[in-house]
Amino acid sequence: MSYAQGNVGLAFGLVIGSGLCTCIGSLMVFCTDLANTKLLAASLGASAGVMLYVSFAEVFTGKAVSAFNEHYNGQEGAEGKAMRSATYCFFAGIILIAMLNALVHFLEALAGRLSLGHADRKKPKALDAASGAGADVEQTIGAGVDGLAEEDKTSASEDGEIPVPQNVQDIMACDHHEGLAKMGVLTGVAIALHNFPEGLATFIGTLAEPRAGIALAIAIALHNIPEGVCVAMPVYYATGSKFKGFFWSFLSGVTEPLGGLLGYFILWKTVTPMAYAILFGLVAGMMVFISLRELIPTALKYDPEDRVTTIAMFSGMVIMAASLLVFTA
User: Fold this and answer.
1) pLDDT digits (tens, 9 = 90+) for 241-264
2) Dihedral angle at the C-alpha atoms of 62, 68, 70, 72, nearest 10 degrees?
3) Which residue ranges run through the membrane (predicted)?
4) Distance (Å, rounded) from C-alpha 2 to C-alpha 327?
5) Per-residue pLDDT reduced to its tens digit, 110-157
6) Residue 176: phi, psi to the nearest 5?
């Protein structure tokens, strides 16, 4: 019970804050001068390093294995059983979030097909670059950075108007408002499903170790900002309403606190060492998957030459390791 009583307020605060960072993304889409891609890549890389180190050194070894040891205490071969059980839960967490990720990709692919179908009847060439927005969250974010970089060279208008990102131009050039609205909403649903286990991971991680929970919340918050762009941009250009774009981005982030709420009820009703051990093992796997599948690939899309991402990732590991050493000395 000590986990739930000690840090539950902080855990809920971090989950709510990281989830609502999708709203920050929905605001940034209208600010073309905030596109410091190297800074964002470094932030995501450092976040991935923090999450990877925390997952293995703290959540898996320090929490999951320890809790299983407590559960098997007194039994023959308790340490071996604890390590095996924690390992099974770790990979089960990876499989669980991978299945959710597959559902995310299915919904985003469906959104992309809807968008492409409408564009084919209007201006298929203009949508050629933007239609990939429904295929993958990271591809959507990176479209204005890598795949469309060459088109950006000619995007400025002759009267000297400051050019907007090419993916935004492509969307504005296509009169397919209904398809855009559906794409934005479906992308929001997909991201909402993706955010749910992230909220659970943040909540459980904070209850186990506040430093780890804070690091995880920051990492997920940074990842949620560009996801907010994916939701708000098509809805805004489909409806002409900034509020509607912001609203759907807000809804996609609300599921993260719901994931935290689920974690609270699970721990409140079931507080045995086995319950904690299983949850921490699952969360460790989820955190590793999020780092390797989401944060690092997204960072490399903003930093295709890897000038800052890898350095930032290892720097994040060093900083987190130093933090753990200081507080355990």
Assistant:
1) 778 878 888 888 888 888 888 777
2) -150
3) 12-32, 39-56, 85-107, 246-268, 274-296, 308-327
4) 19
5) 777 776 665 555 544 443 433 443 444 444 444 444 443 344 444 334
6) -140, 60
Name the nearest CA neighbour of 143 among 230, 225, 23, 36.
230
Pull the structure tokens for residue 325. Answer: 């050493």
Reading the block at residue 13, the tokens are 């605060």
∠ at Cα 220 (214, 225), nearest 5°? 125
Which token pair is 242? 């900034």
Within 10 angstroms of residue 106's Cβ, the number of other Cβ atoms is 11
83: left (phi over 0), alpha (psi -120 to 50) or beta: alpha
- Whole-angstrom CA distances from 280 to 15, 224, 232, 260 are 16, 22, 33, 14
- How far is residue 216 CA from its own chain's centroid? 10
Cα separation, 131 vs 141, whole angstroms: 12
Residues 161-181: tens digit of each pLDDT: 334 344 444 444 444 455 656
CA dist., res. 64 & res. 288, Å (int) = 14
Q: What is the spatial distance between Cα 200 and Cα 219, in angstroms, rounded to a whole number?
A: 14
Per-residue tokens: 101: 């990720």
